[in-house]
Amino acid sequence: MPTPQFAPGEDNIAEESFSPSLIMFWLKTNMGVSSTRIAMTSPNTVLGLIPLGYADAVYPLTNVAGVGVNTKFSVSRLVFGLVLLGVGSAAMDVSGALGFVLLVLAVSMLANAMSATLRITNNAGGVSTVGVSILEKAKLEQFREQVNQRLFADRAALRHGEHMQVQNQQLHTQQQQLNAQQRQSQPVDQPKQQEL
Asked: Which domain holds residue 84?
């Protein structure tokens, strides 16, 4: 699965990888944030187990109103997982292969009943979410802080600081040129020739 690509000129980049599921720990959701946008790629799965392609998304920071982390418990996954667990264990007596598949689905549902989600709210109030394993909640909160630092940075102050730094460099260069010109225009004392 590709990682988010950033354009030349984007700076202050932070990237992180997350497992979207406890069971499918080898699949990774890759997220990155720069001074101008949030980019991510996440795997698509069928029934939460079978990987089938990926989805990518890009959110310009100018269109993002806020970023948050939700932790939720899904009662429907718990109930569906328990039902599949009962049916799968009963099916093991009839057909071992079918029972095994149902048990794997049940374990997947039960393991992912609790999850953490990154919520990205745009300026119009629309919300996009990306789910990750509950074990990576702390890492997801750190990534949220990275996004918020860039999102709520005082852009006017940053631009002013950059402008002042350029002005100071130009002033320093001009001062060096002036000093060099003054040294060249001063007459050089020639040593007096001794009379014979």
From this structure: 75-111
Q: Tens digit of pLDDT for each residue in 52-99?
A: 788 888 888 888 888 989 888 888 888 988 898 888 888 887 777 888
Number of domains in the chain: 2
pTM: 0.64
Q: Is there a single domain that holds both residue 152 and residue 89?
A: no
How does DSSP classify residue 22? Answer: S
Beta strand 29-33 pairing with 14-18? antiparallel
Question: Do 97 and 29 fall within a single domain?
Answer: no
Distance CA 39, CA 53 (A): 17
Distance (Å, whole) CA 61 – CA 64: 5
Compute the distance between CA of residue 63 and CA of residue 129 in angstroms, rounded to an integer: 15
CB 44 within 8 A of CB 29: no
Q: What is the largest CA-CA distance in the chain?
A: 128
pLDDT in tens, 157-194: 666 777 788 888 888 998 998 888 888 887 655 555 55
